[in-house]
Design a protein that fits this description.
By secondary structure, the protein is mainly α. The protein folds into two domains: about 80 residues; about 35 residues. Helix content is about 90%, strand content about 0%. The protein contains four helices and no strands. Helix 3 runs antiparallel to helix 4. The chain is rod-shaped, with a radius of gyration of 52 Å.
Length: about 130
Amino acid sequence: MATEKAKPTSPEPPKDVERVRDIIFGPQMRDYDQRFHTIQRDIERLRQELELLNEQMGELDREQGKRVQTLRRESRQSDDDLRTELRQTAQKLQGEKVDRMALGELFVELGNHLKTGGLLTDMLGLVTDTTE
């Protein structure tokens, strides 16, 4: 009989250990598991929202790029138009403007002619010859 008492007892089956663990830690583990799944859902939802925002930002970036290109094109066109108009106006003014030196010489000759007692008709002939 002494030999029967000395026999080591067999370990509890794994099922019983799990049952004891579930009794002791079960509510906490279920709470942690529930929290973990809630956090996973939140992270997945936030990841999807972030992807959506990234797509929207990419779309806005493309639209802004197109707008900037359009504005640059319009700005260049306006600049070219203004430069062309300025050149035309400058050419028109140069064509219509009397040269200061020629006008000064004309007045000097007119003054000299009047001093010497010349007639106005002679002076008109002189002006006509000078302009041609």
